[in-house]
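Example 3.2
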Amino acid sequence: MATANEKKDFFSVLSAIDCSKLVQKRNSLDYLPWATTWKLLKQHFPYSTYRVRKNHEGLNYHHDDRTAWVEVELILVEQNNDGTFRENSITEMLAVMDYAKRSIPLGKLNSTDVVSSIQRCLTKACARMGLGIAIYGAMDFDDLPEEKQPVPDNVVDLTEIRERLDAGIKNYTKGMSKEQKVHFVNTIVTTLLGGERNWRLCENKEMLENLLEVVEGRAA
């Protein structure tokens, strides 16, 4: 007869883990480092593993001759009391992106970009399975925070205004239900950003400043 523990699905076990004391911040966003995430998962399901899905050329990334993405399969494994194993797997994809979350052109791709994306994709898969999902699932605007990189000379640095928006929107939407947050995005954010839902992807400084003025004004 199955024990109470065996009746729990993987998501229930992983989503119940308190990750709050392990959270770090990057660009005003909370996140779990990939190494911390993997250590936590292995502590609860030590037989679990993952694999990077390679393309037909044997490369550890996929491409469409223009841009690239990585695919990581996470396999959760638990040993039952009778010595048998049960498992569940999920495959996640993540675009190989630059500091502004834009896909990196294939010709400019390097190994560091790919390896970083694989680590972030693994973390995304763990979150999809429940581990740390409360951190990333609060507002559903992004999968994971971007890594901070130097801004090229010919690009307007929007880091400061985006960080103020992150803080302002987090404060303004605190206590809102998910439906209220979605309404906020669909009515205010998209209107002021010309149809764009994610202010972290918007490159128009004037639009971002208009949104910031509204957010900080309402939160005051």
